[in-house]
Amino acid sequence: MADGKIVAGFVAPHPPHLVYSDNPPQNEPRSEGGWEPLRWAYERARQSLEDLRPDVLLVHSPHWQTKVGHHFLGVPRLEGKSVDPIFPNLFRYNFGLNVDVDLAEACCEEAQAEGLTTRIMRNPRFRVDYGTITTLHMMRPQWDIPVVGISANNSPYYLTLDEGVDEMERLGVATRRAIEKSGKRAVLLCSNTFSHWHFHEEPEVPEDMSKEHPQSYEGYKWDMRMIELMRQGKLRDVMRLFPEWVEAAFAEVKSGAFPWMLAAMDYPEIPAELHGYGTVIGTGNAVMEWRLDA
Asked: Which residues does the UniProt record annotate as the domain Extradiol ring-cleavage dioxygenase class III enzyme subunit B (predicted)?
């Protein structure tokens, strides 16, 4: 089998507040709503995903952290309860997901060929992190498309930023090569917030939107500057400014998902579509899409 392709990539942030405010039956806490502009952005992204008809979703989450190498979910069916350790009052989600183990193993092997340390996660009782769950729920709440979950080795934190980004770019190239050989239509999901400056006290009513705004004006300005470059298709400029963005906005893209996704898509010089932007406890969150195939 051959001629697989990446049909699109999405920035799909993972604040658990979005699941909480959505009130799905899988999540135990109940809310009165909130963060509607971001949830409506996800509605538009879901419609686009539906039109793309992917065979598999690949998600890279900063909250599945592995200190030794890059890990891939490798169990055909995973079920359990995922709890956000910071916001257990908002996110206690009973999940069940199907894993594309063949593609996960192929990505793992291709990454090894790139010289990266990798491993397949075979624990059938593994509790999937809330970042992976939130991104997947918001993009495809039907849970009817197999997934490949990829851990965050956080190499840009442990190495220099340049060395870490280089490693994530090699992981992206390896991911693309595995997808091409698989014959499948794949969508990539970068589970990242942009500006990561946030409040340290939660309102009495978490979904009280009168309390919500950017925590940092500087972080907000950097997010707008980078989003505008993405909307213009200037990804090389985005990566040239990447170190300054990470430093000024404390941007979560440093954890690796963003350069992984862009490298896998070979830095397409096409305008990204902004489905929406909003803050969650002061952080900056954009839902964005690069469509590579009709």
From this structure: 10-286
